[in-house]
Design a protein that fits this description.
The chain is of the alpha/beta class. It has helices at 3-10, 21-27, 32-38, 46-54, 65-70, 73-84, 94-100, 126-129, 144-156, 173-179, 194-203, 242-247, 265-280; strands at 13-15, 40-44, 58-64, 88-92, 109-114, 135-139, 161-165, 187-191, 208-211, 217-219, 230-233, 250-253. α9 (144-156) links the parallel β6 (135-139) and β7. The longest helix is centred in the C-terminal third of the chain and has 16 residues, at 265-280.
């Protein structure tokens, strides 16, 4: 499809220059500082753009010339959905699109999404937020790939509330890519004060179980799980902070073959969440 035909059908504008103001602004979103200042982030690829549009967080969708000319059904459906929602549509020439893209083999679609307010309510009423949610607490998970993978697994296993304690940036490109769009479906509460939140959970008659070897340890598969249990997953290299571990109700260990030390944080989270999913789905 010609660019002119695309713009006539869906509306929008064509940008060819790398120095265009809009392109320059969006390109800066690769830096967390600028993401935070503008409260915007990039979701690159068809799947992420579809998820972003589905959950109505999109300010603009940028299509490459190649994507427009390819006329794939999914790209055209994305453009139609963006038009229906009143989202800004941009067709970008090669140099302009290349300045925005971080993919080695780009699909030619980038959604510019707004920060999700629910993800940043560190001063919100946590007691109200946690009600009715199956909660996973992530204590300083620093690797964005691990964080995104855990978010993806959480969405699949019915954990709809995630407490992120000084974790990697949820809007990092690697986090988004690993989450495969699940970021838009999980309610993430960010905090730097996990102990007080754990105490609030316990006051609400919820067990908070640390995935660790502790003085009071339960073994996964050998202990009764409670539907309102909350699980804590620790940092990839250092595990759960001592203060957080001390605040938990008990420790929960995953039985493993003798000689094995531990699982990757994302793998441990998936194993534990699966046990809850198959028990309470």
């Amino acid at each position: 499809m010609k660019i002119e035909t695309f713009l006539s059908r869906f509306g929008g504008e064509f940008i060819s220059s790398r120095s265009n103001g809009t392109v320059s602004l969006y390109a800066k979103l690769a830096d967390k500082k600028h993401r935070d200042e503008n409260r915007l982030f990039l979701s690159e690829g068809i799947k992420l753009a579809e998820e972003a549009l589905l959950h109505s967080h999109v300010e603009a969708v940028v299509f490459s010339e190649g994507a427009v000319k390819g006329e794939s059904e999914r790209v055209l459906a994305l453009a139609e959905n963006a038009k229906r929602q009143g989202v800004r549509i941009i067709a970008a020439g090669g140099p302009a699109f290349d300045k925005l893209s971080s993919e080695k083999s780009p699909q030619g679609v980038i959604a510019v999404s707004r920060y999700m307010e629910r993800h940043d309510n560190t001063d919100a009423d946590f007691s109200a937020w946690q009600k009715g949610k199956r909660i996973l607490i992530l204590d300083r998970v620093r690797d964005p790939g691990n964080l995104g993978t855990i978010i993806r697994s959480a969405a699949a296993m019915g954990f709809d509330g995630i407490v992120a304690v000084e974790c990697a940036d949820i809007y990092n490109t690697k986090t988004l890519r690993a989450s495969m769009g699940a970021l838009f479906r999980c309610d993430i509460f960010q905090t730097s004060e996990p102990v007080s939140l754990i105490e609030k959970l316990k006051v609400s008659d919820r067990r908070v179980l640390a995935a660790s070897l502790g003085t009071v340890s339960y073994t996964l598969g050998e202990t009764e799980l409670l539907e309102n249990d909350c699980i804590v997953i620790g940092n990839e290299g250092h595990g759960i902070e001592e203060s957080v571990l001390a605040a938990c109700s008990a420790a929960l260990k995953i039985p493993m073959t003798e000689g094995s030390e531990s699982l990757n944080a994302a793998a441990a989270a998936a194993v534990i969440m699966w046990e809850y999913h198959k028990t309470f789905r």
